[in-house]
Design a protein that fits this description.
Blueprint: E1 6-9, H1 13-24, E2 29-33, E3 44-47, H2 49-57, H3 62-66, E4 69-71, E5 74-79, E6 84-89, E7 101-104, H4 105-120, E8 125-127, E9 129-136, E10 142-148, E11 153-158, E12 160-163, H5 170-175, E13 183-196, E14 204-209, E15 213-219, E16 229-238, E17 252-254, H6 273-278, E18 283-290, E19 298-299, E20 302-304, H7 319-337, H8 341-363, H9 369-378, H10 391-405, H11 409-414
Helix pairs in contact: 1-4, 1-7, 2-7, 7-8
Amino acid sequence: MRRDHVLIAGGGIGGLALALTLHEIGVPCTVFEGVRELKPLGVGINLQPNAVRELEDLGIGEAEMDAVGIPAREWALVGLNGREIYSEPRGKLAGYNWHQYAVHRGAFHMMLYNKVIERLGPDAVRLGHKVTEYRRESDGGVTALIETAAGERIEESGCLLFGADGIHSTVRAQMHPNQPPIHWGGTIMWRGTAKGVPIRSGSSFVGLGTSRHRVVIYPISQPDADGLADINWIAEQTYDTDHDWSKSGWFRPVELSEFAAEFDGFVYDWLDLPALLAKSDVAYENPMIDRDPLPTWVDGPVALIGDAAHPMYPTGSNGASQAIIDARTIGRMMVERGVTADTLAAWDAEFCGPIGQVAMRNRGAGPFGLLNMVDDRCRGQFENIDDVIPAAERSAFMLAYQQAAGFAKDRLNAAPRTIPAGAKVAKVAA
């Protein structure tokens, strides 16, 4: 058993961010990923300033982020009548010391993967190796049971194991065998990208519609010579609970004809959504799902991070950001306390409850909760939003979400680095 070695199950954003963090602080690690080959899958995601700050501290600067996305300038909600409900600047335009980035998830993921291989070496990520179980050892360590793509069953041991293997985590299932099933709240999402002219600020995240019937659009690239950018779109429809969501695959490719007609009415002088959707090369269907919060993310030398720990509805645009924050706060606590099970317990005690509540805020529509309030108060019809929800109330609602999610501006700008520059661990294992 390698007493100084950390095992990571899952090579997604959280697992790779953790590998880069452990390398930074001097902790050897290996990532085990079930797929044979990583590909730039997915569409757009947002990275909040708190996560962008951590990436910068990892040596991933604006030039590299600009290669996979674009700084977001504005976040806005617009009613189905086309009238604005709320808007605010984002990133540096809002006074943060860091941008908020809208990125192509697959391109960002591959950038992190390449960074891990560059810094940790070609054997740092073992593709085609899926962690199926773990075994706690009597000396305090842990053994991961792994199935390879070739059908072999092998074992790898270390001092700690992190389950970064997503919402369907096998590590979580073993840690919590009686967990409730995946939760679906009634919403189906269709996602894709299309070439289009960016609206409003040129880099605006816009939520348009009602709490049960809406679309989110934002660019994930700079405009080309013709003024066209890659526009990420997410079309959402909430159904009654008797809708069979289980027939919807995770990123199941679908034809536009299966859903586009439900959004034919989203036509304004500043946006023709049906025309934008028609330009899409591909569309994917996803049920909007999450899991109930856990009482603990830790089982001795084993911990869950990212979607394995706290899968969230994407309404807050902070799922990937929180996975990065998980990795960085774990790194900070290892520097302070050592690479031990006690450190995992301390991390769990500090963050499990509060982040579980963020997930519940997202289930309750997150920042899109303003759309619920508009529906409740005027059924979505208004001339002046101030007559429905005063500006102070709208701002207070948004600030409460930002504080809960960890990216309130003044607090974030004033905070010291999560991991001091040059910091290394002093203790590995007990």
